[in-house]
Amino acid sequence: QFPFGRRLPCDIYWHGVSFHDNNIFSGQVNKFPGMMETVRKITLSRAMRTMQDLFPLEYNFYPRSWILPEELPLFVAEVRMMKDRNPSWKPTFIVKPDGGCQGDGIYLIKDPSDIRLTGSIQSRPAVVQEYICKPLLVDKLKFDIRLYVLLKSLEPLEIYIAKDGLSRFCTEPYQEPTLKNLHQVFMHLTNYSLNIHSGNFIHSASVNTGSKRTFSSILCRLSSRGADVKKLWSDIISLVIKTIIALTPELKVYYQSDIPAGKPGPTCFQILGFDILLMKNLKPILLEVNANPSMRIEHEQELSPGVFENVPSPVDEEVKVAVIRDTLRLVDPQKKKRKD
After folding, report:
1. Distances (CA, A) of 235 to 119, 121, 276, 282
2. What is the CATH number of the domain that holds 92?
3. Does 141 lie in the same domain as 127?
4. Domain end call among 87, 110, 131
């Protein structure tokens, strides 16, 4: 670790938040230019919609979405039309600020007229999506999956998916959304950073129990209930590949403007966090893609009011150490030299 930068060139640079954090002219860097912008909620929704228009059946794993404020009239009109066609349809929608993270600013609504059209939506654009009302439950709780995906190169397109991920649980038993429970974030939102503040959050020493578990432990349970886990994995792999294909054109534009062909520059790789929800019928739904997934392997515990200490988290350690180790093995520049 070089706090003030390093004079000699490195084989691999692993650094903070975005590609432009450092002046790096050679070697490999763990960020792609433009990735932060490309996976923001609005840009992702636009890219997915383009693909849904072209290949509706192939891209049916992303919820119907509208971009606010620009598509508010369209959203209102389409919902009204769908309700007229099917009066028994009682949808719920989830509003997510474009630049928000960790559950910040997310809320549920039953009707387009409930969108909070204060100054915030004008200054803070958002995506509104159809809310998945019938998620798969484990122990009566809703959960999502954080999968780690290594984008090793854009040309040729090379993608690796970690064999294990994290399952992050809500902390209140799930009920389908009603006007009474819409605001209950611990029931509807799976974000770890929200649920950690719930009195029901369970830090477990085991990777199979508690409010954060390994995805493999969930697969074991599903398999023991007779679910087709192989098909589930192949659906997830397909979702990941198609999502990255949808993002690739924009990423290539950023890449070519920052590292033009023939100009010396680093090559890039990046670990992405894919957030996926399973429906009751085991169909995976893409929630979002995170350009900078947390690699922390401890959590804060409050010893006394206002006094915190960091405690190791076995489940984070099990999954994330393997992700980083295998990423370094895959991008290891010495491997090629040894082969030669």
Report:
1. 40, 35, 11, 9
2. 3.30.1490
3. no
4. 131
